[in-house]
Amino acid sequence: MKQLLIFFVFLACAFWIDLTPLSIHEAENDDIQVTVRSPDGSEKTIVTGMYSTVGDVLENLDTDEETDTSVINPLTVLKDGDLISLPAKKEETEQQRISINTADEALLCTLPGIGKSTAKRIIAWREENGLFQEISDIMRVSGIGEKKYEKLKDLICL
User: Fold this and answer.
1) Which residues contact residue 66 at a Cβ distance below 8 angstroms, ignoring those fewer than 6 apart?
2) N or C: which end of the chain has fewer CB within 10 A?
3) Which residues does 84 contact at the CB level (< 8 Å), separation at least 6?
4) For the chain, how far is it from start to end, CA to CA, in angstroms?
5) What is the H or E stretch that residue 5 is in?
6) What is the mean pLDDT of residues 38-46?
7) Strand pairing partners for 46?
C-alpha cells in the first residue's frame, strides 16, 4: 500500500514540474563584466562577451612598459565578476635563484663551492629524506656547513 501511495505522489509531482529544456538562445545577458587591476593598483571594469579569454581582454587593453603580461595564462576563460591582476615586471638585475628541490646535478654545480660530489650528495639527501622544507635544511647535507651556507643562501630557493 505504501508503495502505491509513493507512486501516486511522484506521479502528481511530475505533472507540476516544468520539464521543458532551457535554450541557450534564451539567455538574457550575453555580456560579462571583468575588472582589470594594473600594477599601480588602479582598476578598470571591462564589458566583454560571454566565454571571452584573458587573452581577448589583454588584446584590447593598453598596458605600459612596467606591466608583465607574460606570466598570465591567456587561455583562461573568464566569467562574470572575475578580477585580472596584472603584475609589474621584475628588475632584470635580479639574479635567478636555483631551486634546491628541483635542480639537477649540472645546475647545482653552477653554485659557488658546489662540485659534482656535493651536488650528488644534495640530490641523494633529497631522494632519501624528501624535499627541503627550508633553505637552511641544506646544511644537513654532508659537506655544507655554515660558511658555505652563507655563500649560498641568497642564490638558492625551494
Assistant:
1) 39, 88, 89
2) N
3) 34, 35, 36, 37, 54, 57, 72, 78
4) 68
5) helix 2-16
6) 87
7) 34
Is residue 45 very low, low, confident or very high in pLDDT (cuts 50, 70, 90)?
very high
pLDDT in tens, 79-96: 998 988 888 877 654 557
56: three-class secondary structure by DSSP: helix
Given a cut of 60, whether residue 27 has pLDDT beyond it is: no
87: Cα within 13 Å, side-chain hemisphere: 9
Mean pLDDT score, 71-81: 87
DSSP 93-110: TSPPPEETTT--HHHHTT
* Predicted TM-score of the model (pTM): 0.43
Residue with cell 628541483: 102
| Pairing mode of beta strands 31-37, 83-85 | parallel
CA 48, distance to chain mean position in Å, is 23
Give me the helices (H) in 17-156, please. Answer: 54-59, 105-108, 116-129, 146-152
Identify the residue whose cell numbers are 598596458: 63
User: 502528481: which residue's cell?
Assistant: 12
- Please check whether residue 66 is in contact with residue 74, taking contact to mean a CB–CB distance below 8 angstroms: no
